[in-house]
Amino acid sequence: MLDKLRTYRQDLHQIPELELELPQTQAYLLNVLKDMPCQLYSPIGSSVLAFFDNHKEKTIAFRSDMDALPVEEKTDCPFKSKHQGIMHACGHDGHMAMALGLADYLKDNYSKLDVNVLLIFQPGEESPGGAKLLCETGFLDTFHVTQIYGTHLWPNLSKGVIATKPGPMMARSSEVNIDIHGKKSHAASYTEGIDALEIGAAYLTEIYSRLKQIPTHVPYLLRFGKMDSGEIRNVVSDHTRLEGTLRALSDPVYDQLIELLKTTAKKYEGTFTFDINEGYPPVTNDEALVQELLTFLPDIVLLKHHEMITEDFSWYQQYVPGVFFFLGTGTGIPLHNDHFDFDESILETGVQNYIQILEHYKSID
What we know:
Blueprint: H1 2-13, H2 23-33, E1 39-41, E2 48-52, E3 59-65, H3 92-109, E4 116-122, H4 130-135, H5 139-142, E5 145-154, E6 162-164, E7 167-170, E8 172-181, H6 196-211, E9 220-229, E10 239-248, H7 251-265, E11 271-276, E12 283-285, H8 287-296, E13 301-302, H9 314-317, E14 322-328, H10 345-360
Parallel strand pairs: 3-4, 3-5, 5-14, 6-13
Antiparallel strand pairs: 1-2, 2-4, 6-14, 7-12, 8-10, 8-11, 9-10
């Protein structure tokens, strides 16, 4: 199996593509899957669904993401990206390889299972959120999916370790843009204007002060990394723009933070406009499903802490119970880094984890 996994990963690593338009990646996947005993579908552009139909009532799904990043690769590996300025720097090539490795297992074994199996190859995880687009097609109902699993390579875990966490595991995240409109005037007569720069500075300081009053038992993050204002030193600014990020592990806390932003704005002069994108929901693993997995996957490590980064696997969990795993690379090389790489032997561990899940459910009701 390892030789095939290595081939899949290295082939896919050389043809990275961005967002929702992944024609070469899709063609590669379809070529591998075309002679397997599965039905192939593409509910949204560049996606691939491989359905191993046992004519059972229930289906277990496994998802891999497909898209790469706008990163210029700086590794010296012989299978380096052939697409300038684009790189699989987040392990999605490995995720697809694992799903193809599972397909190889299913080719000879799916008929022995008491469930159907659906492999999901999803574009647009990094942006704009391909999981939501796929879910909105209704395919989870069409294929009677009752459980879904996914895995992400994770640099800060020891090599080959598989870990998860019941309940909230990864944050909900949104981009926050706030425009404050004031009124220009010469600095010598600043009282005739409405100083958007002063308002922005005061508003930001107050937001940070008020955040300290919110309990932290449910983790959250609200920070602004960019502030633009004004055109010239002796003219009162009539526009300030704040750009930041909002993250939380629960929707009520997320909503509370948005309300804080908007209610605080009401006390200031000028006009505030808010542009807060929907982002991705928090990755929240089904607690009962995790506890069941632990009864037959004793090597799984339970994470003690959540992560404040996001993953659009969370959209599937809005529809069906699901569990997301981390698979340790042991390298410490961060995700999205231009030197990101890993030992492909860990992919075999990831596939075996999936196989054990399927074989446990041979007698699923």
